[in-house]
Every structure is written in structure tokens, then in C-alpha cells.
Structure prediction request, 171 residues.
Amino acid sequence: MKKEYLEAGKIVGVHGLKGEVKIDPWCDGPEFLSRFKRLFDKNENEIKIERARVQKNIVIVKFRGIDTPEDAEKMRGCVIYIYRKDVRLPEGVYFVQDLIGLEAVDIDSKESYGRITDVFQTGANDVYQITKDGKDHLIPKIPDVVPEIDLDNGIVYINTKIIGGLFEDEN
Prediction:
């Protein structure tokens, strides 16, 4: 089951004298996070955003009702969330939290090679860490290697012919 609220970052500090906070983005980046009009706390309470801007690798945010550095300081350390329905992802793009736990299955033989335990963003393409019996394997998320992702059934199909030999030590 997909989570409705997704971790998006953490408030790491206070900025200035007007109650602004610094958010370390855990999502696609500061530009992505700065576009939201609202965020949520761990209890799914809405926090309205008055303004947001990117500064280096963080987002400076002014929340409605947080008007002093003292108010902002109380938020330090809080994890913030986005609401899934506030985001429209392009086709073929997924939330990392939805990929974690998917079973990696050979597209031809249907053999299972483990589950996705992490996703690394390398710039050129994502890399999926697949773990089985304590062993980790890294596969690039490129169309030839990962031709299909079936979120509804919890499966990521991989073409082991393209990455021949990677899983051979398993047998």
C-alpha cells in the first residue's frame, strides 16, 4: 500500500529574524521542494508556506504563523512530508519510497533475485540496490536493464541477459 505522505526533508536550522527555517531536502532537490504551497508534519498536520527559496543545497521556508526565530527553533529536527497527490510524476518516474521493497524478478525466467533495498541517484541514471540473503547487487535503472516496473504487484522486472553474470554467484 502506498503511503499518502512521503518524507521530503528535515528542518535543520533557523534563518534570519522573521521565523524562516532551513530544510535539507531528501527528495529530488531543493528546487523541487521549494515549489510546494504546503507541507506536513509527522502527524499529517498541514503547514502552509508563505514563501520558499533555494539557497545552495537547502530550502529557506517561511511557514505561516511562524514569525520569530524562537518559533522557528522549535521546529528544528522535524521531518517534513509532502502529500502524494500534490505531485504529478512523469510516466516512468517513481517515488523512491514506492520502489523500496519491490521484488526484483527476471523478465524471462521469472526467477527472483531479491528486493530493492536502496536507490542511489547518480545523475546519469538511478541505481537500484538489490539484496538477497545478505548479498547486495547494484543494477542501473536504464530501459534495457529495467524494462518494467509493476508497482501494483510489487515487482521490478530486470533483464539479466543485459547484465550477464551479475547474479550467477547466487546459484
